[in-house]
Specification:
Belongs to the zinc-containing alcohol dehydrogenase family. Class-III subfamily. Its cofactor is Zn(2+). Its EC number is 1.1.1.1, 1.1.1.284. One of its GO terms (molecular function) is S-(hydroxymethyl)glutathione dehydrogenase [NAD(P)+] activity. The protein is α/β, with parallel strands linked by helices and 378 residues long. It folds into two domains: 201 residues, Quinone Oxidoreductase, Chain A, domain 1, CATH 3.90.180.10; 138 residues, NAD(P)-binding Rossmann-like Domain (Rossmann fold), CATH 3.40.50. It is built from ten helices and 18 strands. The strands form three sheets. Strands 3, 5, 6, 9, 10, 17 and 18 form a seven-stranded mixed beta sheet that branches. Strands 13-12-11-14-15-16 form a six-stranded parallel beta sheet, sandwiched between helices. α3 crosses α4. The radius of gyration is 20 Å and the shape is globular. It starts with 7 loop residues before the first strand and ends with a strand.
Length: 378
């Protein structure tokens, strides 16, 4: 590529400060350093975690930044020491790295990694180091990825090389939302054939959890949401029943308990709300019920009565669906190409990067499942 080794000037949506619309700016993207890859971003989804940082977390040290962490693109150039990637490769940048060397990477029980922003910077949600500048200021790279930019630079331990025929405007969703919900059901909850499941929250993550329950062989999949318009979509992914908490004058856990002779085998909270997390736990059957926290939040404490766990329920959390990122994402792309995993059905809106604020508004109001932004032409 003619741009290799040079600073690239390109368009990016910059979050200068929390609670404000993103601004399209020309930014400078430095060449990749040792073990880094510069990627031309072709497409990106807009995920609730982007909104969380902008409107809920609002950590002052996390701005200015370029957000976006659910993208796919093409390698533009590589830094020294990079041998497994070459210009032209199709890739998905990963917000969870997989160095392969740390004690977490070597342990099959987890997908965490000691390298990268996620090890100790959950509050600001980015590394202090960055390859971006704009108007003379350092611009942080949100979650290490920054896919709301035409170009980004990512360490090779946080990049997955994918099948060359993969459509980037679909497989980008495997960079976060779909992998997160799907894996929470199959890897973290370990949903069993013939079981009864409840999924709370029917955004992209929740619908992917429904798909995971279905693919794992669940017999009943109860979709729970306060927006009845979501039910038809949930049926596409395998939901067998729908419950709207607003239709009942008793706690949703009681409603589900009555529907299931004492509670569901597995529940997944895909909202990121501590009150819903408690409801999801209390909806599980005693003795063996498993409830998984999937929705991202670090704002409030959660609470439950100890007897809930003493009676045999398990309460656990899931990050990126428990998938070891570099290993799993290429396999998930192949499963999509083999029609074992749905992606197209999640995409309700397509728009250019310049309309990112419209995509954020759609997610705020719940009027979309996933908006995919076209960032650069392929």
């Amino acid at each position: 590529m003619a741009t290799a080794g040079k600073v690239i000037k390109c368009q990016a949506a910059v979050a200068w400060e929390p609670n404000k619309p993103l601004v399209m700016e020309e930014i400078e993207v430095a060449p990749p350093q040792t073990h880094e890859i510069r990627i031309k971003v072709v497409a990106t989804g807009v995920c609730h975690t982007d909104l969380y940082h902008l409107f809920e977390g609002k950590h002052k040290d996390g701005f200015p930044c370029v957000m976006g962490h659910e993208g796919a693109g093409i390698v533009e150039s590589v830094g020294s020491g990079v041998t497994n990637f070459k210009p032209g490769d199709k890739v998905i940048p990963l917000f969870i790295s997989q160095c392969g060397q740390c004690r977490f990477c070597k342990n099959p029980k987890t997908n965490l990694c000691e390298k990268g922003w996620a090890s100790d910077r959950y509050d600001v949600m980015s590394e202090s180091d960055t390859r971006f500048t704009c108007k003379g200021k350092k611009i942080l790279q949100f979650m290490g990825t920054s896919t709301f930019s035409e170009y980004t630079v990512v360490n090779e331990i946080a990049v997955a090389k994918i099948h060359p025929s993969a459509p980037l405007n679909k497989v980008c969703l495997l960079g976060c939302g779909v992998a997160t919900g799907y894996g929470a059901a199959i890897n973290t909850a370990k949903v069993e054939p013939g079981s009864t499941c409840a999924v709370f929250g029917l955004g992209a993550v929740g619908l992917a959890a429904v798909m995971g329950c279905k693919n794992a062989g669940a017999k009943r999949i109860i979709a729970v949401d306060i927006n009845p318009a979501k039910y038809e979509k949930a049926k596409v992914f395998g939901a067998t029943e729908f419950v709207n908490p607003k239709d009942h004058n008793k706690p949703i856990s009681q409603v589900l308990s009555e529907m299931t002779s004492g509670g569901v085998d597995f529940s997944l909270e895909c909202v990121g709300n501590v009150a819903v997390m408690r409801s999801a736990l209390e909806s599980c059957v005693k003795g063996w019920g498993v409830s998984v926290l999937v929705g991202w939040t670090d704002m409030d404490d959660f609470a439950a009565r100890p007897i809930q766990l003493i009676a045999g329920r398990t309460w656990k959390g899931s990050l990126f669906g428990g998938f070891k990122s570099k290993d799993a994402v290429p396999k998930l792309v192949n499963e999509y190409l083999e029609k074992k995993v749905k992606l197209d059905e999640f995409v309700t809106h397509n728009m250019p990067l310049a309309q990112v604020n419209s995509a954020i508004d759609l997610m705020k109001t719940g009027d979309c499942i996933r908006s995919v932004l076209s960032v650069s032409p392929q």
